# Entry
Amino acid sequence: MITTKDLTKVYRTRDREVTALDGVDLHVDEGEVFGVVGRSGAGKSSLIRCVNLLERPTSGTVTVDGQELTALAGSGKRAGKELRRARGRIGMVFQHFNLLSSRTVLGNVELPLEILGHSGQERTRKAHELLELVGLADKAKAHPAQLSGGQKQRVGIARALAGDPKVLLSDEATSALDPETTRSVLKLLRDLKEQLGLTVLLITHEMEVVKAVCDSAALMKSGRITESGTVPELLATPGSELARELFPVGGVPSAPGRTVVDVTFHGETTTEPVISKLSRTYNVDISILGAAMDTVAGKQVGRMRIELPGSFEDNVVPIGFLREQGLTVDVADVAAGADAKDAAKDTAGDADDARDAKKAGGDASGLVKEGAK
Ligand SMILES: Nc1ncnc2c1ncn2[C@@H]1O[C@H](COP(=O)(O)OP(=O)(O)OP(=O)(O)O)[C@@H](O)[C@H]1O
Ligand SMILES: [Mg+2]
# Structure
């Protein structure tokens, strides 16, 4: 549904150049919710603005629903007629809602319908229908100032749906909301996706958002996508930074000279007694340093950090055994004692990180942390 090929964006100011996108190949399938995560300044907003040609990319192509947008004339406010029509089929939701305070809720949703050329009556009918869809039918006459953040974002979503889009783009739509409101807005996005068959490309610095709604995700760093895939694929990729951030597990070895291994269970392996088999087969004592079960992308996933006696070389065979059982196995590089504080912080989870990141004004400081490599 959305493809970018070798997309670059260079901003030129008088005295310097900033490469915000540096060869981005993105592929979003029809009907999926695709999350792009990354630190502040990684190029996420630039990417989303290039996808709907609010910004004209410096080079590369953008294709949405089979139409190459980069081949159409104009950009931003000077978009040509064809581009404007194509863009009408792409809804956009913003972090700060961008509602007109002088208009009622209904008036805000009617605005894009006016621009699309709908007549007065048709406009009002459609706007009421959209408000119904986002659960705000009773707020039609209210003004934005009388709404909570979550309600404002629902208006923002209703407005984005005015052109019957097939694609919804969202730039940090929940970053200004508290966790509970975030959950309800995400649920709305997920429901709308199912109901209307939307494809959603969303940008976030909160791993909780990816966990709650995304089918696929990509990690952006310095204008490049360094990892991408479906969430189950990512969780099954040894060494995946995204997997580690999605599902952190902490714990430090009890003494030097031990091997610490992070094991991810998914699918059928969640019910297999793999650890006791390992212990029996190789006659090794296994300590569990940390463990968690969670639901990621609607599936049960388990993660465990275990400690084996001896060095990595001593444990090549048992580790191979775990891999043969269909588990994802990462050897964690954590020292005994020294990193205890860091590791404890890691286990505290990404909810705290997300909050810190919010405080830092969107800086995803918790995102790409060094640590259990
Ligand atoms: N209009 C612009 N002119 C010049 N430089 C820009 C412009 N917009 C973005 N940049 C620069 O491009 C880089 C990427 O910015 P972008 O807004 O895409 O990052 P981001 O990943 O969305 O960050 P955040 O998480 O803080 O929103 C940054 O270095 C930024 O300073
Ligand atoms: Mg941004």
In short: The two ends are 34 Å apart (CA to CA). Residues 2-235 form a domain with the Rossmann fold fold (CATH 3.40.50.300). The chain has three domains: 2-235, 247-331, 338-372. The longest helix spans residues 179-196.
